[in-house]
Design goal:
Layout: H1 16-26, E1 28-31, H2 37-53, H3 76-83, H4 86-91, H5 95-105, E2 109-111, E3 116-120, H6 135-138, E4 144-150, E5 161-164, E6 176-177, E7 184-185, E8 195-196, E9 205-209, E10 214-216, E11 226-235, E12 239-241, H7 254-258, E13 276-278
Parallel strand pairs: 12-13
Antiparallel strand pairs: 1-9, 2-11, 3-11, 4-9, 4-11, 5-8, 5-10, 6-7
Amino acid sequence: MLLTPFADSQPLLDQPEALRARMERDGYLFVSGLLPEEAVEALYAAIMAICREQGWADADNLALGEPRLEGYPEWWAVYDSLQRLEAFHAFAHRPEILRLVEAITQEPVLVHPRNIARITFPGAAHYTTPPHQDYPLIQGTPQTYTAWIPLCDCPESLGGLAVLAGSHTMGLLPVHRASGPGGLSVETERFGLTWHGQDMRAGDLLLFHSHTVHRALPNVSERRLRVSADYRYQGVSQPVVEDSLMPHYGRMSWDEIYEGWQQEELKYYWKRLPVRITARNFEIMQPVETR
């Protein structure tokens, strides 16, 4: 897949108007080296320790056995433990991310507590996340932004993320069923837009609008796992659907996840904010084949 490199917004970090203009134009911001590399590496190490404990990786963090696919029975041994990881949820509140998002929203930021990790095995190209928009899955306000963060150096061969620059201006697109996380995809060929993507390093961040079409790239490495995080943000005055305040996949309660956490301020923090709940629209999630 031919990709155009991201426009790096690192030089614009002290220019909020320029950041907003670029987000409005492209539907995404790529910021190289935004996050301290040592902080990213610490979170990666904590996740890989869980993977090693469950036999997903060896002592060198190389993949073991057949690919485990998100949502399948063998997935939960690692993912449930990962969701209990305080460091994983705390990372969503990094001040570097909040400053960037606040430059876009121009108001205090609501960090969605429903945080998502992706662990992508090599040899599972058929289950790669397809082109899609986040809004049908997230809902609430369209002005919700996803921060996609590789938790290790991520060359294209490891299966990074690509965005269809400018696709957020196309509005909400019809969805159809597809394999891979999320289970929904959109058609992109008719727009004549360009896919942007490139090698990324630990510490880089990609932020995009909920209408921006994006897709994962297949992990074609020999034995490396691609580990990344999805964190979502919006202005605190904007509406949010209730399930965005629930744990990802809903397999555990927050009390179960919070057991043993040290940072009390991270627990139920959204209940201390003027959050405005809105209903989910299930119609926009219906694949076109069933209409």
